Amino acid sequence: MSGILVTGARGFLGGAVLEILAARGAEVHAVSSAPHPEAPGSVRWHQADLLVPGAARALVARIRPEALLHLAWCTEPPGYWSSPLNYPWVEASAGLVREFVASGGRRVLGVGSCAEYDWRYGYCSEELTPLAPGTTYGVCKDAFRRIMERMCADAGVPAAWARLFHLYGPGERPVRLVPAVVLAGLRGEAPRLAEPGAVRDFLHVRDAADALVSLLQSGVTGAVNVGSGIPVSVTRVAQTILDLMGSHLVLDAAPPQAPPGSTPLLVADVRRLTSGAGWRPRIDLHAGLGECIDWWRAREAS
Amino acid sequence: MSGILVTGARGFLGGAVLEILAARGAEVHAVSSAPHPEAPGSVRWHQADLLVPGAARALVARIRPEALLHLAWCTEPPGYWSSPLNYPWVEASAGLVREFVASGGRRVLGVGSCAEYDWRYGYCSEELTPLAPGTTYGVCKDAFRRIMERMCADAGVPAAWARLFHLYGPGERPVRLVPAVVLAGLRGEAPRLAEPGAVRDFLHVRDAADALVSLLQSGVTGAVNVGSGIPVSVTRVAQTILDLMGSHLVLDAAPPQAPPGSTPLLVADVRRLTSGAGWRPRIDLHAGLGECIDWWRAREAS
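Above: the input entities. Below: the structure tokens describing the complete assembly.
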């Protein structure tokens, strides 16, 4: 019994996690429902559709992993917030953890999101902020966490739960904020921002992956926010991208009146992550956005 | 019965309030325990020490004001957080409101602060965030609000309560953040920041005064945050000041690890203020800090 089973390994975050684990020479078993891609170093690929009954059991029986990092879920924006696929992912995820624990697994890291919190509170603390998911995605992630934590507690397996905030980085889907602004900039157009004055918590995908690996290898249990902890407005992110691209466009800096049902601020309290897992973000927003611009420029040019 | 009674009229915020009311030609009765200073336009000065028994009754009987904006309190930093003077200010303030209401007053605006909130929540909403003042000042302000609101409700007088966040502006006391950084910059020294990574809500004193006047003249009742709603780190404020002063000093932008008992973020949800009183901040941080630098340069040069 050895190695780390990583599900959702072909995803935006999964790819960054594999790079870090491979660089550390960890024994990694990467799972994806798609055929095997190129794998860095010590990564072994397994093709499995976890939504198919019996798939998780067969996978775990074959690998007998020591640790589980479960990233797989339905994550296609924007539909995933309300997708009915969220429900089978609760069942599949609970089944995977059950098989993992039954086979003698010793460490679980599940992955949720800020969507589990009551967003009216804005600043999210694991110990303090009420949970009140407003979407199917949030409800299902929260329900899976409750099941996972109880299962693992019953079996004496330490389990942690990462709540991701707003990730960005090269390879992100084009409809999301950073690519949308970069692509508008490349076309010489003004970006259209849905919530310009909104303040969010942006974290580079490699920093997030590093946080997950640090958490997995720590003794931390329970929910842990994974974010930068640094509040930045959507307008500021967009303006920084435009400035870095050499655009002369100046966005209206005045925050528009936030409507009553809006979420003016959504930021992570990251003290559990920094103190418990000893993690620090390494990529500042300027450098990270610059990397995204270069990535999209290269892609559009090819 | 007419006019607005403004207490604490010689204070940092009081001065800015008087300028705005005078510019609008309002009948203003300004109260201070110190002798009468120069008064702008339509302002009439009254010398009274509200902590002296009977002073509030005599003042109200003489003026018979229609509205009350009660700014006076003990506010000398840093001692005011724990000063025993906070207690007599509760009694004096409650007595003033009682006399005001009994004489037929029609509108009350009391002034409290973010110190009333449970700071662990970080993002402060009037309707949602629990109150849990951690200082004598906060406890006393909160207690006075409760008394004031009940008294006014019993008498059918609409009362509002402004909760101020971090104000700055020309004339601020030198121990506070902005003057301390400006004065360090003038001496060519690096500023010493007690909480460099802390994120706060900074509002120029004239914007705050404008918010109070807008609130007083609106029909809004209950607690209303008075802040910018814009999160900014202490390091960023300091760096902006140094940059504006032409300093080449670069402060460490990496937020240090926030200790468990710290307050990493303290920001106002300002939707009640902007939607209820129709107020908008007018002075952005660059312009406001530039004004402070000019003010201190002129003062140090004289």
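Note for the figure: DSSP finds nine helices and twelve strands in chain A.
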